[in-house]
Design goal:
Layout (H helix, E strand, L loop, with lengths): L5 H4 L31 H25 L4 H15 L7 H15 L6 H7 L8 H15 L9 H11 L6 H80 L2
Helix pairs in contact: 3-4, 3-5, 3-8, 6-8
Length: 250
């Protein structure tokens, strides 16, 4: 009796093609984009989280771990923030170093140079446009030019049109001096002054409070450690005395 074939049973023939064991089709796309790569607001939120984490590790933690006096640390944060709020991106760290040298040599007024240099990076290539636009708007308001305030998108377009992607350092410096300083120089400088004063004042007060709190915690931990060490020494001394008395008892 012959074997029954697929034609006899009426079922379609099964495919002999097998999927290789190493192949991985990946997750099936589920409803509402489940299994799809993250994008949009989620990706922006991830970038913001990474930026805040970077600021914590590069700015806040060195502030808390500083071994200098709280006033010395707070002055460093204040100087760094004040130069960061000036429209001088590119030479702010140099200006901090010059300030440190002059105040240290001429006035014997010292501050943390390392923290100052670090805090100038609050304004950087990613934050320069929002800060500059804030200076520009503040300056136009202070100068009374209420009807001559450019929108943010127009401001960004003018900025990007001034600086090309393949522009060298000297070309970018010349464009900055000719277009930015000549065109927006007065509003930028005038508008940056309130930001410099406010961030310097609040930066000093907040960093001083944070530094004092962590110095107090560090001192409390050190005191507790010394207290435990003294208690262990007393216990050991008491045990030695008790053992000596026991040995001397007839």
């Amino acid at each position: 009796m012959r074997d029954m074939t697929a034609e006899d049973t009426g079922r379609p023939p099964e495919s002999r093609t097998e999927r290789p064991r190493w192949s991985d089709p990946g997750p099936e796309p589920g409803p509402a984009g489940i299994g799809q790569p993250a994008s949009g607001p989620g990706r922006r939120l991830g970038w913001l989280t990474q930026s805040l984490r970077l600021m914590r590790y590069k700015l806040v933690i060195p502030l808390m771990r500083s071994r200098h006096a709280p006033e010395h640390t707070a002055r460093g944060v204040m100087i760094g923030l004040m130069w960061a709020m000036t429209p001088l991106v590119g030479i702010q760290m140099m200006m901090v170093a010059v300030t440190w040298f002059l105040t240290n040599r001429l006035f014997s007024w010292n501050f943390s140079l390392v923290l100052s240099l670090a805090w100038t990076w609050v304004t950087n290539a990613f934050t320069i446009l929002p800060f500059y636009y804030g200076y520009y708007v503040t300056g136009q308001v202070l100068l009374g030019h209420w009807d001559d305030i450019t929108g943010f998108e127009t401001f960004v377009g003018l900025w990007e049109g001034t600086f090309g992607a393949d522009m060298g350092f000297w070309a970018a410096l010349w464009a900055y001096l000719v277009d930015i300083v000549a065109g927006w120089g007065l509003p930028l400088v005038v508008g940056s002054v309130p930001w410099v004063l406010l961030t310097g004042f609040f930066g000093y007060r907040i960093s001083l409070r944070v530094s004092r709190r962590h110095h107090a915690k560090r001192a409390a931990r050190r005191e507790a450690t010394e207290r435990r060490k003294a208690e262990r020494q007393r216990e050991q001394s008491a045990k030695v005395v008790a053992r000596t008395q026991r040995d001397q008892t007839p």
